[in-house]
Amino acid sequence: MRFLYDISFLVFMTLYFPVMVFKGKFHRGFSQKLGRVPAEAAHLRKPVWLHAVSVGEALVAARISQGMKKVMPDVPVVISTTTSTGNEMIKKAASGADAVFYYPVDLRCVVSRVLDKVDPRAYVIVETELWPNMLREAAKRSIPVILANGRISDGSFRNYKRIGFITRKMLKCLSSVCVQTHRDAEKIKTLGCEPSAVHVTGNIKFDAVRPDRISPEVESVRELFLAGKKAIVAGSTHFPEETHLIDAFGGLRGKFEDIKFIIAPRHVERKDAVRIYAERAGFKCCFFSDLVSPCSRTVDGADVMIVDTIGHLRDIYSLAALVFIGGSLAKKGGQNPIEAGIWGKAVVFGPNMRNFREVAEAFLESGAALTVPGEEVLGEVLSRLLEDEEKRKDMEQRSRDVITGNSGAVERTVEVIMSCISDPGHFEAEHGGV
After folding, report:
1. How deeply is 212 buried, as exposed, middle or buried, from its count of CB atoms within 10 A (0-12, 13-18, 19+)?
2. Percentages helix, strand, coil for the chain, rounded to the nearest 5?
């Protein structure tokens, strides 16, 4: 079975190679994906290895690393990421990690080499990034494997059930599973995880620390683009949400002269499509990069700013009078409102928040957010909140309360990791036959 998996993986990599070339996926450090472990990671003694896929998971990994360093300052921590944006985010964050590198491809020979070089005392997967060879090779070495901040969307649950035999084999390799909600716990138990291994520790993203200051680039948005006016910020949007939002903004400008619109497409390569629609609607546009480029273009008179960079949205939320969460009108399952919540912002989203159902419910139940049932009333809902400053201020306070009331997941997760490290024999006894 594992031989067939390796062959299939090699075939996929061969077929995907031209796509990687076309999309510019080759970057400095790419050889690490093929098993080259950087010296700073290979020379550490028995580190804890945290793995994160991209930016969102990287921020969670940074919080876990910081939490571990508080209670185990002498234990080295290394963090791997799949994407270059995640890699850059970890290096910028004050994560306390002793080394950062790219995650290896899931071929047995590559995974074995990396595990031999890194020799971790524990392997921690952030959210749900399960690779069969890595899990099996870690289990063979009796390395405790912990899933941190785990969540299983409805779609992922269905997919895992379709490959139930493989899923059960992978879950058998996990020594401890830290999930965000009781609903996630029930799903992963249904998929075959040992109930005694499952811990409901909460969502680490609620533990996000509000920065002491925002980046200079974002401060320039406040000074040069907003210039004292209010901002509606729409984050991580999809098509056709942008068209609905720009149309709604057009209606609002007839009532409110002191507002501007900042929109951050989920996929930045769509920036020109968003610009074209906004300009056809009669608005002067600029890009966020216009403010930070050496050849910076003027933003004077611009009504709409399009965020065309990665990693700035969290700070940009700090500028908002109102925040719209993307992916929720476009039936993409929504995005996470927590980054807006750490700034204490009033939040609006559409009815499709299935990927962040529990987080959305927490915001709605506390009165920190409103649901827009459809695009036809989007402008009306935004207008009502812009008019009612008292209501907006109340929502902002409730938003801060949601974040405070749901914090503590980092500490609970670190406790689980510590218990696995201090009692590795338990994992070997339970899973030694994998």
Report:
1. exposed
2. 50, 15, 35
Task: Look up residue 61 and give its amino acid.
Answer: A
Q: What is the CATH number of domain 27-203+409-421?
A: 3.40.50.11720
Domain ranges of the chain: 27-203+409-421, 216-405
Length of the chain: 434
The CB-side HSE value for 83 (13 A sphere, CA atoms) comes to 12
CATH class name, domain 216-405 = alpha beta
pLDDT, mean of each 10-residue run, the chain (434 residues): 66 60 62 89 94 87 93 93 84 83 91 95 90 92 95 87 89 94 93 94 85 81 89 95 95 91 94 95 92 65 91 92 96 92 95 90 95 95 95 96 93 94 58 46
Give the DSSP letter string of 1-34: -HHHHHHHHHHHHHHHHHHHHHTT---TTGGGGG
d(CA 51, CA 40): 16
In which order are the strands placed within the sheet that holds 285-287? 285-287, 304-306, 259-265, 230-237, 322-325, 347-349, 369-371
